[in-house]
Amino acid sequence: MALAPSLAWQDKLAMFRHYLPLSNNILPRRPYNQSAKLFHLNPTTDIVSNLNSGAHHLLDKIPKGNVESATALISHFSRQNQHREAVACFSTMLLLDIRPNEYTFGTVLHSSIALKDLHLGKQMHSYAKKIGLSPNVFVGSAILDLYVKLSNTGDAVRAFNDIHEPNVVSYATLLRGYIREGWFDEAVVFFRSMPEKNVVSWNTMISGCSQTGKNEEAVNFLVEMLREGVIPSESTFPCAIIAAANVGALGIGRSIHACAVKFLGNLCLFLANSLISFYAKCGSMEESLFIFNKMRERNIVSWNAMICGYAQNGEGNGAIEIYEKMTEEGIQPNSVTFLGLLLACTHVGLVNEGYKYFNKVRYEDPSLLKPEHYACMIDLLSRSGRFHEAQRFLQDLPFDPGVGFWKALLGGCQVHSNLELGEVAARKILELDPRDVSSYVMLSNAHSVAGRWQNVLSIRQKMREKGLSRIPGSSWIEVKSKVHVFVTGDKRHGNRDEIYLALGFLLEHVMDGGDTDLLIEF
């Protein structure tokens, strides 16, 4: 079927001119047309050199109107990640008056997404609309995916509304767009309105909640999904496990772990790594080690999860032991490995070991060193009270230290009540970030420990004058698989009366015992 006469072949050529190379194999054999000069069709060398001339020769030999063969050729290029060539073939297909079908657009729109070319995608959308294919669910879903990944939710909503009968894929794609933009409430409403939900839809909500910090909601969606009788996939559990880890819900995480074993049997590598991190964050390194030892295969992420887990739990020797075992098995460490090792050394004051690992990387593979590694060394030295070495390390940095470096030094000054150096570090922080609240708080705490109450009042007065306020402290506890979250001065908890009553009894007991240091904290 020929294209509408209103769309001249020069117009088709101009639409995709940046992707269309000139070659005897792919351009249609037409008389020279002076108007073609208007399009300045000068091919870029890299496109021409990478062209599969045999494939384009086949396109030129396709019988007139054979869209299936042309689409298969475009699909071939797309599968080989030769997306510029796929677009060039699509352009040539139009010049040969082969009318694309819904599968052609689905394939070539994927190539425009891979090329991150929104302008090209919009041209394809316009062309699909011109020939009446944009309401087709297959084409419409591809257009929707384009706008979700490369544009904004407004464009995506308009593309979704243009689809004649959207399917579960269309709904799931727009759902991802809402979550990507941070429109969580709109995403929930849209999710509830979906006429059909599959495991991908549920996974999108669970992962979206987890990635946006709505951890309790992520776990609740998993529970609701199971109650609805939807069978979870391998992709379901990692995000739910991460959500449980973020709130320290050990009981809930164990239930999710058991559920994963029930539905999946053997745990995939990604899920096993997530479980190692989960148990480590909840302080249960025994269970992390159990998962690690049972894994049939491990990658660098598995080893790093164990090293960082031991570091988070203050078990420096455990982290070093895992690292030594890792090197014995011939696993090549990366920058995360050494960052975990330095953190482990920092938490237990292993200064010499920290120096050893830092120098090992510096001499053997300095490309692995990132600013975070240098900051860890300053933190290690200052927390160990070795301030002269920390200052010398700061002076020898191969780059200008940022806020994080001075905060590391200030943290050590707070621990050892080094007020003079602490004030220097605080001034540096405020020069770089005048509205940094934490530096005021840390310096105030250091003065408090030293009993310099006038300085404490002065710092707090400066904070009020600048309109700065502390972010309320928070904590949580899990009781009977329910996570209870508390913030400073909390008045919203359902059991607040009983909580404050118990707190009153605790304060009375402390006052009777004369523990003034603890009273200062309150």
UniProtKB/TrEMBL annotation:
PPR repeats lie at residues 167-197, 198-232, 299-333, 436-470. InterPro entries: E_motif, PPR_At4g14850-like_plant, PPR_rpt, TPR-like_helical_dom_sf. The keyword Repeat applies. Keywords: Repeat. It comes from the Eukaryota. NCBIfam families: PPR. This is Uncharacterized protein. It comes from Handroanthus impetiginosus.
